Amino acid sequence: MMRLFKFMLVALFVFIFLGCERVLPFQEESEKAAIEVSDLNQATNSSDAKVELASLPEPDGIPILVSLGKSFWVLDPTDPTPFVNLVYLYSHIFLINDYCFGEYVHTDSGWLMRSYSDTNLVRLIWVNDLKDTLNFTLYVDEYEFNQQFERFQVKKGRINFFKNKRSIYNSNFHLVGDSLWINETIVNVFQAQVSALRIAKSPNFVGTISAEIINLITEKTTSVLVNCNSDSTRTVRVSFRRFNIDFLIRANVSKIKIATYSPRFREVTGDFFANNIDVGDLNGIKYEFEDATHKSYLVITLRSGKRINLW
What we know:
The chain has helices at 2-19, 27-45, 48-54, 84-91, and strands at 64-66, 93-95, 102-107, 110-116, 121-127, 133-146, 151-163, 166-176, 179-186, 190-198, 207-215, 221-228, 234-242, 245-253, 265-274, 277-287, 297-302, 307-309. By secondary structure, the protein is an alpha+beta fold. It has a domain at 48-164. The protein has an 18-stranded mixed sheet that branches. Strand 13 (234-242) and strand 14 (245-253) form a beta hairpin. The longest helix is centred in the N-terminal third of the chain and has 19 residues, at 27-45. It is globular, with a radius of gyration of 25 Å. It starts with a helix and ends with a strand.
């Protein structure tokens, strides 16, 4: 009788265990948190500041240079790492000479100085294809001659960017030795305080980047910590608190990879945590450029199977 009772008890336990649906913790909250990250990324990429800055004309005569190549230039289009290209940009702003201060307008023949300024500002004015007037002003608070590049490097300054007299972007920055501080705002999207420390001399950035981001839509804060390694790999931690839950995205960015009949690319892998519980996987690819068969993506896949595209 006792053996029969034990058998029935074990059978009941197995029935309950197999018959009950497994409860996945924090799935609903994690989905909402991931969607917020996705929404902020989409708002950034579609913002006037992002779109119009990318359209900045770059023919002969432009008075602002980044790494003596283009003006506002992305160092590595394969790199999806947060703030890496921003740090590169603000670390490599040069003037063509120390008497280029003034107001410039873009014409069919290039950038022409319209008026000289003795207040250490460089103002670029152009009209886009939709006939909007763009006004980009760099205020140079501190600069010095860089022997390596044989140009004047801006060490401290401010940027104001207007579209049809409406502010769409502003920043201030200060470069001291191997340390850089940036405070930037994409109007109505986010404000970020960024600090970077270079720990090795290299054509690419090797060091650490930290940032505090305020989402101006939700008024919520997100922290970012990046380690850029000498082999060009990166580790990224994105942490934020929502719904009384501590969320963490932990990611690894690969070296640049090359495949036959493919643009160069980097792979992204990682995990998504809620209160230290692994609630999803992160994976993606960032191509140097996109075509019909190569599309960049970054996706969080929750344990429930739900997929959220971050970009």
